[in-house]
Amino acid sequence: MEKKKIVVGMSGGVDSSVTAWLLKQQGYEVLGVTMRHFSGMDEIEREAALAAEQLGISWEAADVRDAFSEQVMEEFAREYAMGRTPNPCVICNRKIKWEALLRYAAGRGADRIATGHYARICSLPNGRLSIANASSATKDQTYALYRLTQEQLKHTEMPLGEYSKEEVRQMARQAGLSVAQKKDSQEICFIPDHDYAAFIRRFAGEEKAGSALLPGNFVDREGTVLGRHKGIIHYTIGQRKGLNLAMGHPVFVTGIRPDTQEVVIGENEDLFSTKLLCGRINLMAEERLEGERRLLGRIRYGHKGTMCRVREAGEGLWECEFEEPVRAVTAGQSAVFYEDGHIFGGGIIEGRG
């Protein structure tokens, strides 16, 4: 009997390598592929190729640089230039990673793909698929996966959703993988030095970034000038460090006004709100939002979630009202809503409601 083929996206880290090992243990013919998102990924590719060799599976790199540049890097630079704070992983997962893996699989006679995310795919009573929280809450990665489509989920395996990070490292040691103790990556992959402003200046240039690169005024919410800033691309909502304002006490970025190049400064309490609006909606658990729904809402990757009520607020918009105030609602980030431990849907935050 011929083994079923499955394509595993391999990033050169412990999670994707153990994913490949687990699936091989289950009897699959595993094909490893590493996405070449941008130039300078030689070390990642070497580590992925070595892991594949240690596992005894085939491996190759797939070049997605053009699509990644157009759909992820350009979007990131454009959003920052508009005073927003995007999450590029959310866009990459749906438009680049999953699409490329599925194309690669189809070309090699494989019907399934797999990734090393800590999440689980669940079937709902209404016949739809959703993404459920990982069993290990500390590593749950569902937030960045909420834009995946039903068709993408139908062909996907996420075996790490049942394990803790330490269990995964133990399996890596058991499999003899040299990446067993490799540290997790925390930064945006194409900005490893965390200098977003330098990336936008280099990638978008003066013409695309425009006034976002230029110095402007720090102001309070009444418009009183408090000082000068380096350009709005250097700031995000909730930021405290790097403001260089002598106010006598800690102050925070509470707003960004790209039209006037102003960065609004306020107190910590000014950052809390109970409402937000989000657009570019992706529904996962249902085909549509009917009436008002009580859900758990997360407004950033590290947010554990706050109960809220979600309703439509016009064409392609949802309004969310939280039961307790949440800190630093940030345009460009994602609001992801959960029901009974799985994703209901979500969208891109447009601002406070």
UniProtKB/TrEMBL annotation:
State the reactions this protein catalyses.
S-sulfanyl-L-cysteinyl-[protein] + uridine(34) in tRNA + AH2 + ATP = 2-thiouridine(34) in tRNA + L-cysteinyl-[protein] + A + AMP + diphosphate + H(+)
Q: Where does it live in the cell?
A: Cytoplasm
Q: Where along the chain is ATP bound?
A: G9, M10, S11, G12, G13, V14, D15, S16, M35, G116
One Pfam match, given by its short name, reads tRNA_Me_trans
Predominantly, its location class is cytoplasm
Catalytic center residues: C92, C189
Cell membrane as UniProt keyword: no
User: tRNA-specific 2-thiouridylase MnmA-like central domain: which residues?
Assistant: 215-266
Q: Could you tell me which cysteines form disulfide bridges?
A: C92-C189
Q: Where is this region: Interaction with tRNA?
A: 139-141, 300-301
GO cellular component annotations of the record: cytoplasm
Per its UniProt record, what InterPro entries does this chain match?
MnmA-like (IPR004506), MnmA-like_C (IPR046885), MnmA-like_central (IPR046884), MnmA-like_central_sf (IPR023382), Rossmann-like_a/b/a_fold (IPR014729)
Q: Which GO terms describe its molecular function?
A: ATP binding; tRNA binding; tRNA-uridine 2-sulfurtransferase activity
Q: Where is the tRNA-specific 2-thiouridylase MnmA-like C-terminal domain?
A: 274-349
- EC? 2.8.1.13
Matching PANTHER family, A to Z? MITOCHONDRIAL TRNA-SPECIFIC 2-THIOURIDYLASE 1 (PTHR11933:SF5), TRNA 5-METHYLAMINOMETHYL-2-THIOURIDYLATE -METHYLTRANSFERASE (PTHR11933)
| Its biological purpose | Catalyzes the 2-thiolation of uridine at the wobble position (U34) of tRNA, leading to the formation of s(2)U34.
Similarity remark = Belongs to the MnmA/TRMU family.
What is this protein identified as?
A: tRNA-specific 2-thiouridylase MnmA
Protein species of origin: Candidatus Eisenbergiella merdigallinarum
